[in-house]
Amino acid sequence: METNIFNNYRQWITEQKMPKGRRVVLLAGLDLFAQQGYNGTATAQIAEKAAVSQATIFKYFKTKQDLLLAIIQPILENLFPLYRDDFLPELDQFNTLPEIVHFIVQNRYQFIKDNAAAFTILLTELLTNPTIRTLFTQVVQASQPMIARHLLGALKKAGINDDLDPLAVTRTVIGQLLAYFIQQRLAPQIVIDESRDLQLIEMQILRAIQK
């Protein structure tokens, strides 16, 4: 499949040059794996949602596991790195800690929100699938130089707590956003005020990392 900068995974799948049958199976798998989990989804359900036969699924993907990898690999090998390379250098333009935290929270949360199904599958599979964990670890390791240069460089320039190491900073920022995302996925009945909630998240992050 072609590689280009993209922010919305579903849109990216739609725009790729591939047989229609493969595309509809990928999109159906994306939806059902996110809604029901990998183990809770049968290939018959994917076929029904995609309006194709199970034979069509196995024409393009030898196993259900192959379909899962075909969904997740582009996320880890294309979506994350390209978004990282586009997002991190933008941090260099900010001078104050509140500006940096505001940009990170708003930008990264929108990215997570735009790709909610993909993130749901990835987070679930990271807990149980060693192949996915290996792919994710490779992306994280490859990202460390850019994170150190742009994210930590900008934060230190703006006055971050000197006692915090890179992992602690990353965990604090991403952890707050993922916790909020997971809350919405697990308890969608809870009424939220997204603007207010993100503002509170920014305040919590600032309290945790500023001097």
From TrEMBL:
GO molecular function: DNA binding
SUPFAM superfamilies reported in the protein's UniProt record: Homeodomain-like (SSF46689), Tetracyclin repressor-like, C-terminal domain (SSF48498)
UniProtKB keywords: DNA-binding
PROSITE patterns: HTH_TETR_2
Signal sequence, start to end: none
Gene3D superfamilies associated with the record: Tetracycline Repressor, domain 2 (1.10.357.10)
Source species, domain of life: Bacteria
Protein name, as recorded: TetR family transcriptional regulator
UniProt source species: Loigolactobacillus coryniformis subsp. torquens DSM 20004 = KCTC 3535
